[in-house]
């Protein structure tokens, strides 16, 4: 499994609001059967509401603002405060709006900004939605998304240019394993720090990966590159937390 260096965690990220800025984390405590804390805890519904917070269920990602169609989101930089559930949005280094997402007034402030900033993408008034314990992931299962940095390097070789791993919206970035080894880990247990993950699905990539996560430019054709080279668009894997524990950047990783 190793490419010569010891397998390890090189990045941890969460996405408090679906489609918006990844937040790097030095360490996190995982709980069995749950996502990374506050990962995709909120989403911005695009137009007429289908999400019922009293009966939360998984909905197609096209229900919400997302990078696949709404790359202008990437030009906004967000930060999220756990203690108050307050979201701050900045553009070009300047704060443009701030609101406490757990309150109607705070949500309204963010919604009003999004309504103006994303007006060309909207099917109706945007609505910030959430429900206790619900995650607005692209898959219904509560899980983490794992990306192999060696696979990113191989994709860079195929594409002939550098590729930011954050294009793939990872929760966990691993290094020190062979390129594409993660795609062979279905139903295998992955030990990361003090936690155990079970890989259950390969990630089929969409057009969101074509968007530069820092500039918002739609400047690549990653799914097409993958399909041309391998006959599929899989990159990264989803894994369920089967045993909770602390993980941190620099922690060892291994296949049990």
Topology:
Elements: E1 8-14, E2 23-24, E3 27-30, E4 43-45, E5 76-81, E6 86-91, E7 94-100, H1 104-117, E8 127-129, E9 144-148, H2 149-159, E10 172-175, E11 189-192, E12 195-204, H3 222-230, E13 234-243, E14 245-248, E15 253-255
Parallel strand pairs: 9-10
Antiparallel strand pairs: 1-2, 1-10, 3-14, 4-8, 5-6, 6-7, 9-13, 11-12, 11-15, 12-13
How does this structure look, described?
The protein is of the alpha+beta class and 256 residues long. It has two domains: 8-33 and 139-255, M1 Pyruvate Kinase, Domain 3; 43-129, no CATH class. It has helices spanning 104-117, 149-159, 222-230, and strands at 8-14, 23-24, 27-30, 43-45, 76-81, 86-91, 94-100, 127-129, 144-148, 172-175, 189-192, 195-204, 234-243, 245-248, 253-255. An eight-stranded mixed beta sheet has the order 2-1-10-9-13-12-11-15. A hairpin with a 2-residue loop joins strand 11 (189-192) and strand 12 (195-204). The radius of gyration is 18 Å and the shape is globular. 38% of the residues are buried.
The strand line-up of the biggest sheet is 2-1-10-9-13-12-11-15
State the separation between the terminal residues, measured CA to CA.
Answer: 12 Å
Q: In terms of quaternary structure, what is this?
A: single chain
Please provide the count of β strands. 15
Residue share in β-strands: 25-35%
What is the succession of H and E elements?
A: EEEEEEEHEEHEEEHEEE
CATH superfamily of the largest domain: PK beta-barrel domain-like
Which CATH class of the largest domain? Answer: Mainly Beta
Low-confidence stretches: none
Give the radius of gyration.
Answer: 18 Å
The proportion of residues forming helix, as a percent range, comes to: 10-25%
Structural class: alpha+beta
CATH topology of the largest domain: M1 Pyruvate Kinase, Domain 3
Shape descriptor reads globular
Mean pLDDT, as a whole number?
Answer: 95
CATH architecture classification of the largest domain? Beta Barrel
**Helical run tally:** 3
Strand count, sense and closure of the main sheet?
A: 8 strands, mixed
Query: What is the total domain count?
Result: 2
């Amino acid at each position: 499994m190793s490419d010569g260096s010891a397998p390890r965690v090189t990045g941890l990220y969460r996405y408090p609001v679906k489609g918006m800025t990844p937040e790097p984390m030095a360490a996190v405590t995982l709980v069995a059967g749950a996502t990374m804390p506050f990962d995709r805890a909120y989403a911005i519904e695009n137009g007429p509401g289908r999400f019922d917070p009293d009966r939360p269920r998984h909905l197609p990602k096209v229900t919400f603002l997302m990078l696949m169609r709404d790359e202008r989101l990437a030009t906004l930089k967000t930060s999220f405060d756990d203690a108050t559930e307050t979201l701050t949005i900045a553009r070009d280094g300047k704060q443009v709006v701030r609101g406490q997402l757990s309150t109607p007034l705070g949500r309204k402030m963010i919604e009003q900004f999004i309504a103006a900033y994303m007006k060309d993408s909207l099917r109706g008034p945007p609505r910030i939605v959430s429900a206790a314990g619900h995650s607005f992931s692209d898959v219904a299962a509560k899980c983490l998304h794992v990306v192999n940095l060696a696979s990113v390097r191989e994709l860079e070789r195929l594409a002939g240019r550098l590729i930011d791993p954050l294009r793939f919206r990872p929760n966990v970035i691993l290094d020190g394993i062979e390129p594409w080894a993660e795609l062979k880990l279905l139903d295998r247990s992955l030990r990361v720090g003090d936690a155990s993950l079970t890989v259950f699905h390969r990630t089929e990539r969409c057009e969101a990966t074509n968007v530069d996560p820092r500039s918002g430019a739609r400047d690549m054709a990653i799914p097409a590159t993958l399909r041309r080279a391998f006959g599929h668009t899989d990159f990264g894997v989803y894994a369920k937390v089967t045993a909770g524990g602390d993980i941190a950047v620099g922690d060892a990783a291994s296949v049990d």
